[in-house]
Amino acid sequence: MKVEAVSSGDNIYTALQQHEQNVYLLLDGARFDDIFAFIYKIDSHHEYVPLYRGTYYESVMEGGPFLVKTHVHGSLLSWYIEEGAKEMKGLLMSSELPLQELAKHFQQFLEVRTPNQEVMPVRIYDPCFFHALTPFYNKQPLVQLLKPLQQVFWAKDETIYQLS
Prior knowledge:
By secondary structure, the protein is an alpha+beta fold. The protein has six helices and nine strands; from the N terminus they run βαβαββαβαββααββ.
């Protein structure tokens, strides 16, 4: 996989055209006042999965990651390209997996065990954290995290990047 800067929103639309049915946003709930209201305000027909649902972190679900299925010509994707990426509200991606399977996949990576066996949450859905991992995308366990993804887009310092 390689990382490159994206020159415009049109490039994102073009890149996603071949994956039109499998486009997702992995949103950081902590960056919204009310993520549930936001999702329904943009388009009440979106399917989504709060990734903290059914986990130890369920009590803070609203501040956690939300995997939202969208499509290339949808209002949620337009919002992300125009505002959401630069406000660092999450990641945009394409995958061959359906929503529920991709959600289960990501739930495996929401925490890590430290060398002294403490369990700590990992913010894989935070664009800053994701960008910091750039040098390690070809190393385990990141290869496993990225395995079902064809493309990932995120912003850092006013630049939108693509991993493909």
